[in-house]
Automatic annotation (TrEMBL):
Pfam families: DUF3105. It comes from Actinocrispum wychmicini. Residues 216-225 have a biased composition (Pro residues). This is Uncharacterized protein DUF3105. Residues 24-61, 194-234 are annotated as: Disordered. Residues 24-40 have a biased composition (Low complexity). PROSITE patterns: PROKAR_LIPOPROTEIN. Keywords: Signal. Residues 1-18 form the signal peptide.
Length: 234
C-alpha cells in the first residue's frame, strides 16, 4: 500500500475553536451523553480554522492541504464477526475490513483501549477517531484532546498502546500523526474530515450504537493477529 504525504498549502491563524462544525447539508444525530467520557477539564485556548478546510463541491478533500497527512483510497470495507481479527498493516489503521458492529462514536472518549476492528467501522460512518499514546499523553494534554471530542457528533477518542507518536488522528482513508496535542492541524483535520460526505463510504450512517458498551467496550488486543486473521484489504 502506498501512502502519500502532502504539503501544507495555507497558513492558518489561531483564534477560536471550530471543532463543533459539521458539513453543511449533512445532518447528524445528537451527541451521546452516557458512557466513557473524560473527567479532566481545563480551560483550553482554541483555534479557528479557515474556509480552506471546509468541505464542499469544489473542495471535496480539504485535508490534502494539511502538512503530513497520509491518504489511501480504501476500496475494501467488508465485515468480519467478533472475535475474528483483521491483520491491519497500519497502526492505527484508517480503513479496510472491520467488525460488523461499530463503536459508539458520538462524542465518546473511551478511557480504555478499544478493539480496533470496531473503531475502524466508526470511520466508515464518518467519524474522526483521535488516538493517543497513554505513556506520553496525560493530564492537561489529555484534556486538550478530550475537549475536541466530548459532546461532539461523529467524534471518538481512545488510548492506543504502543503508538509511535503521542497523537494520531484517523478518518476513513486519512491519518495524521502529531507530537503536540495543541497543534493547529488537529482542528484542520477535524474540520476537513468529520462527516465529510466526499471522503467516507456511508454518508448518513449513524454513530449511535446502544448495543455497544461504552463503559466496558471490547478490549484492544496488542498481540499479533495470527494466521487465521483476515487481510485488511486495499
Amino acid at each position: 500500500m502506498r501512502i502519500r504525504p502532502l504539503l501544507l498549502g495555507t497558513a492558518v491563524a489561531l483564534l477560536a475553536s471550530a471543532c463543533g462544525s459539521t458539513v453543511p447539508g449533512v445532518p447528524g444525530p445528537a451527541p451521546s451523553t452516557g458512557g466513557a467520557s473524560s473527567s479532566s477539564k481545563v480551560t483550553i485556548p482554541h483555534s479557528s480554522v479557515g474556509d480552506d478546510f471546509t468541505p464542499g463541491a469544489t473542495n471535496q478533500d480539504p485535508a490534502k492541504k494539511i502538512q503530513g497527512i497520509e491518504i489511501h483510497d480504501y476500496a475494501t470495507r467488508d465485515h468480519v464477526m467478533t472475535p475474528q481479527r483483521v491483520a491491519y498493516d497500519q497502526a492505527p489503521p484508517f480503513g479496510g475490513r472491520h467488525d460488523a458492529e461499530w463503536a459508539a462514536c458520538n462524542g465518546v472518549t473511551y478511557k480504555k483501549a478499544v478493539r480496533t476492528e470496531h473503531m475502524v467501522h466508526a470511520l466508515e460512518h464518518g467519524a474522526v477517531w483521535i488516538t493517543y499514546n497513554p505513556d506520553k499523553i496525560t493530564g492537561d494534554d489529555l484534556a486538550v484532546l478530550a475537549a475536541k471530542v466530548d459532546g461532539q457528533p461523529y467524534s471518538v477518542m481512545s488510548p492506543y498502546p504502543g503508538l509511535d507518536h503521542p497523537v494520531s488522528l484517523q478518518s476513513w482513508g486519512h491519518r495524521l500523526k502529531l507530537d503536540d496535542p495543541t497543534d493547529q492541524r488537529v482542528d484542520q483535520f477535524i474540520k476537513s474530515l468529520r462527516q465529510n460526505p466526499y471522503t467516507y463510504p456511508e454518508p448518513g450512517a449513524t454513530c449511535d450504537n446502544p448495543s455497544f458498551d461504552q463503559d466496558n467496550p471490547p478490549p484492544f488486543d496488542p498481540s499479533a493477529p495470527g494466521p487465521d486473521a483476515m487481510p485488511a484489504g486495499s
